[in-house]
Amino acid sequence: MLILGQSLSGTLSSSSAFGPLPPENAVDLDITTRFNSKDEVHPWFQMEFDKPHMITQVWITSRSDGNFDKFKQVSVFVGADPSTAGQLSTNPLCDHFDGPVEVASVGVQFHCQSPMIGKYVVVQVTTTESLPFAFGEIEVIGRPIEGI
């Protein structure tokens, strides 16, 4: 089993980034930094791998400063399609967290019901209100699929 994020082989992107808080902060192994999007509908964070991976779960650490309670209505999708601004991911759902998170720096586990294969892991706010999306760290647990 490989923990991706620490040994990421691919590309990070997001629907937007607020100031100096880019997607790369979510994989820097420093819980005092964070990824933060701008206020928008369905903000997302995306990991694109060089080849398909079998994903079993995703761990996300809530932000360490205030406003951790805004981490709510978050879904993880795994599949073959990249995200599009303002739209929900079309990839299959791995898991959903209603939230909100009640303390800083808490880990939220997204457990896929069965292993999922995909080139993209998309973490997205599913509420229709315009709001920012922020979290500290992400770990994607899975392994590369050979021969695909």
Number of helices, where a helix is a run of at least 4 consecutive DSSP H or I residues: 0
Main sheet: strands, sense, barrel: 7 strands, antiparallel
Helix content: under 10%
The overall number of domains is 1
Q: Would you count the extended β strands for me?
A: 9
So what's the overall shape? Answer: globular
Percent of residues in β-strands: over 45%
Rounded to the nearest angstrom, the distance between the terminal CA atoms is: 18 Å
Please compute the radius of gyration using only Cα atoms: 14 Å
Roughly what is the average pLDDT, rounded to an integer? 86
N-to-C series of helices and strands: EEEEEEEEE
Indicate the structural class.
mainly beta
Contiguous uncertain segments of 5+ residues: none
Plain-language structure description:
It is built from no helices and 9 strands. It is mostly beta strands.
